[in-house]
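The following record pairs a protein chain with its ligand, 8-OXO-guanosine-5'-triphosphate.
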Amino acid sequence: MSAEVLVVDGGRTADQAGRPVTEVAVGVLIDAQGRFLLTSRPPGKVYAGYWEFPGGKLEAGESVEEALRRELIEEIGVCIGPAHAWRTQLVDYPHALVRLHFCKVYAWSGELQMHEGQQFSWERLPVQCAPVLAGTVPVLRWLEEEAAAPR
Ligand SMILES: Nc1nc2c([nH]c(=O)n2[C@@H]2O[C@H](COP(=O)(O)OP(=O)(O)OP(=O)(O)O)[C@@H](O)[C@H]2O)c(=O)[nH]1
């Protein structure tokens, strides 16, 4: 769990007081070879073309796991097994203040299908795709830390 706010684009001080927080469920899908899945943000969305972990906003009444399961079916065509809550990160973008709930996922069914015109890549550290979304960068650091000192 991280209490720090990541402030992105604009060079302002964290001005999150009073802004609504958008809760976002994000999946770190890890395959049998230890690779993780990154997808590019679809055309037409903010930060289109930037690479991120797949996921999306919680709808009213949804848990993080429910939202993640729904989003991944909608966006990449796979139905996930258990979502293991891992870390959270508050990110202050000019367009939104988001709380990212990162979950590790080791099991899913179905073949990857990019339903929104994204690209996908199974990655290892250091990642080869660029640019990476600012809110994704801390996750890569956490993965590095875990690789250096497995829990
Ligand atoms: N999915 C995802 N979103 C991230 C990550 N890192 C990060 O800062 N975000 C931010 O979290 C928010 C997620 O919104 P989204 O646009 O993907 O969600 P969504 O599919 O529900 O959007 P919609 O409103 O178009 O339906 C965006 O502001 C995005 O910039 C990440 O690794 N994965």
